[in-house]
Amino acid sequence: MPSSHSRSTLPTRSLRTHLLVAGSALVVGCASILGAGAAAAGTSQNGYPLITQAQTTQWAVNGVNFWTAPGKPTELLREFVTWFDANVEPITLGNGDDWSWAEPALVPPTNTAYSNHGSGTAVDLNLEIHGGQGFSGTFTPEQTGKIRAKLASMGGQIVWGGEWSNLPDDPHFEVR
Ligand SMILES: [Zn+2]
């Protein structure tokens, strides 16, 4: 697949926002995008294979498009995002700030594993409101309680970046 196709169908505004927020991922992320084409060989941090955008499944919640790995990851993330939109806050808040698949990029702080966005097994919701890497506590206590209860009800199959102590990532949710 030509790399121009990847770029033209990416939500570029949200990608830019994410890269600005994820400062130390910027250089690696840009290099990866410029060299786009085939996905990097290997797996992302959670063990899922890195894929190209053409290998993702596209779906939408509340008019917002997402691209995720086919099968179970799409089922899980679609269920969670649909629930989040209806029960936590609309994902239409913010401007083009919801993110899913992206060209594989290493993630800080260790830069030894590819982001789970590269395998289409992670989403960012309302980045403009919830910051990104390094941000926690951007949800109200009520919202936090709801999110924790929902993730528990899904058997812990989705992990919330807001719970990470090392480098919290409030808008980020990924398949375990
Ligand atoms: Zn993310």
UniProtKB/TrEMBL annotation:
Q: Which Pfam families match?
A: Peptidase_M15_4 (PF13539)
Q: Which residues form the Peptidase M15C domain?
A: 111-175
Q: Which GO terms describe its molecular function?
A: peptidase activity
InterPro entries for the chain: Peptidase_M15C, Zn_M74/Hedgehog-like
Q: What is this protein called?
A: Peptidase M15C domain-containing protein
Q: Which organism is it from?
A: Gordonia lacunae
